[in-house]
């Protein structure tokens, strides 16, 4: 996202988190910009019945948790380290100074936030209206469109991650993927899903 040289110019703090650590909790005030140098982050909520609902996964080079910085909102989800992580963090005021000084980076963030808003709108519609196969296909097509593959896209998500992102049980995801393969909407080769 933000080049390392610029992060260093703005004195970004590099912090190490161990696997299963929490970077921030849902409901906390947003005070920092976060960018992953190495590792994997999962942002999730816990529903009233104790079920985990995943908002998104982020990995090397990705930023996460920025929308609340722009609106003085509290974090709408918890950021959890799926693996050991090294993360750059910049205080909110410094991050805004960086954006003012680098309009190209600011534009990149505007595009990123728009992309995330479209994703959220798609997923909300899917969760409230459509059957499992449709939900999964919409999710996979979104990732395919976002990565701009030539023709065939290898889905990098596990069945568990698809389950967490769609609010479906893993067993339902497995059955739905098999059904989608039978109807030629995707195909499976060596347990990997392609669309």
Automatic annotation (TrEMBL):
SMART domains: cNMP. The keyword Hydrolase does not apply. GO terms for cellular component: cytosol. GO terms for molecular function: DNA binding; DNA-binding transcription factor activity. The keyword Nucleotide-binding does not apply. InterPro entries: cNMP-bd_dom (IPR000595), cNMP-bd_dom_sf (IPR018490), Env_Response_Regulators (IPR050397), HTH_CRP (IPR012318), RmlC-like_jellyroll (IPR014710), WH_DNA-bd_sf (IPR036390). Residues 130-195 form the HTH crp-type domain. Residues 15-116 form the Cyclic nucleotide-binding domain. It comes from the Bacteria. Pfam families: cNMP_binding (PF00027), HTH_Crp_2 (PF13545). PROSITE patterns: CNMP_BINDING_3, HTH_CRP_2. Keywords: DNA-binding, Transcription, Transcription regulation. PANTHER family: CRP FAMILY TRANSCRIPTIONAL REGULATORY PROTEIN, LISTERIOLYSIN REGULATORY PROTEIN. This is Crp/Fnr family transcriptional regulator.
